[in-house]
Amino acid sequence: MKVLLVYPNAPETFWSFNHALKFISKKSAFPPLGLITVAAMLPDIWEKRLLDMNIEPIGDKDIQWADFVFISAMVIQKQSARKLIDRCKKLNVKTVAGGPLFSCEYTEFEDVDHLLLNEGEITVPAFLKDLENGCPKHIYEAAGWADLSNTPVPLWGLVNIKKYATLNIQYSRGCPYNCEFCNITTLFGHIPRTKSAGQIIRELDVMYDIGWRGGIFFVDDNFIGNKMKLKKEVLPELIQWMEKKSYPFSFQTEVSINLADDNELMDMMVKAGFKTVFIGIETIDENSLEECNKIQNRNRNLADCIKKIHHKGLEVQGGFIVGFDSDKETIFNRMIDFIQNTGIVTAMVGLLNAPKGTLLYKRLEDEGRITESFSGDNTDFSMNFSPSMDINTLTSGYKQIVNTIYSPKYFYERVTRFLRNFYPKKSGKVHISINEIGAFIKANFKLGFVGKERKYYWKLFFWSLFKRPKLFSMAITFSIYGYHFRKVFERHA
Length: 493
Prior knowledge:
alpha/beta, 14 strands
C-alpha cells in the first residue's frame, strides 16, 4: 500500500511568520505533527511519503503515485484542502481526511472517501481493521477520548527538518476551562489527558538523534492543565534530560494566566528550558470576560500577572479579542495602553469569531446572528456573525489597534520596554546557526537601510548592544517579527 500524507497550504496569517521566515531561509514555521503521528499508526510495510504544500507544491504525479491520500487540516486550510480533494477525485485516488477542519465541518466534505473524525488513536485503528477486512466505512467517529499512552512517536524520518523554523511535540490534550469562543473542549474534552514523562523523553530523543538543535513548540492548548503531574513527574525528567544534553532545545508553549500563581511551576519550566508562553488574555474588560466565561482571567490584575511571569524569565505572548457584546468604544484605546504598558511584544489582536462546535456559535445561531462561515483567521478583518457594536465602528477601532501597536514607533517602544525589564535565566550553551547569522545580515539591510522602521531599528540596535548585550539577539529577532506583523496587517490598510 502506498500512502501520500498531505498537509494543505495555509494562507498568510499572523502566526504563519512567512515574512520572518525569509530572514532565516526557512519555508514554514512548524511541520505537520498530526500527520506524522498518524503515519506512525499505519502498518510498517506500507510505503509512506509526506508532502507539506507549505514547503513544496503537489503535482498530479504525486497524487497518482498513491493508493490513498491522507489529508489533515485546520479550518484556515479549508480552501486548499477543498482543491486538493477535488484533484484527488479527478485523478481517481481515494482520500482519507481528519483533523480539526474535518471533525468540525465534516458535512461539507461528503465527497471524501473516508472521514476519520475526532482523535486518530481511536479512529485510525478502526479504519485499518475495516480496510483489511475489505469493508471500510465512510465516517469513523470516536465515542470517547483517546488514551495518550497509546500515542506513538511521530515518524520524524518523513520530515525534512531543514525546511522548518521550529519542531513540535504534544504532551497533553484537553482544557479544564470552558471559554465560550473556543472549540478545544469540543475536540478534546475538559479533563487534561497527558503522555508520560517517558513518552516525552523518547520523542525528544528522536528529534535529538535526527540532528535537531533549536526551538520546540509544545502544541498543548493549555500545557499546565494538570499542574501536579507536570511538577512531580514530567518537568523533573525534562530538566534532567536537558541538563544531560547541554540544553540542545528551547521550548515554547501555551498556558493559562494562572501560571502566575505558581512560582515553583514557573521556576521549573525555566529550568527545563522554556523561554516563551502564549497566554489567551482576550480582554481587559471584566464584563467581556464574564460574557465569554473566561473565569481564569477574572478578578485578577492581569498586568501584574504578566509582569510576574516576565520577572521569572518567561516571555509572554498574548492573544486579544475585540467584538464582544459587552465591549464599549473605549476598549480600543484601553487595549492599546495595556499592550504597550505590559511590554507584550507579540500581541495577536483579533476580531471575535464563532467557530463551529463552540458555545458561542450555538448561542449566536439560536439568536439568528451567524452570517457566514469562519475563515479560520481572526486577524483578516472578517467576522462570521453580526456584532452588537456597529460593524464600521468595530472594524475601525480594530484597525486603530493593529495599526498603532505594530507601527514602528509603538512596536519598538514596546520591545525596549520589555527588554529593559526582562532578565532570563541562563541555561546551557548558545547555539548560533548559519541561518541566524544570515538573518542578522538581512535584518541590517532590510530593516536598517530599506525599511521605514530604520530609525527605530538602529536606535534599538545600539541601545540593546550597549545596555542589554545579553538580549541583543532577542532584540534583532523581535525586529524581524515586527516586520512580519506589519506586512500582515498592511493587506488591510
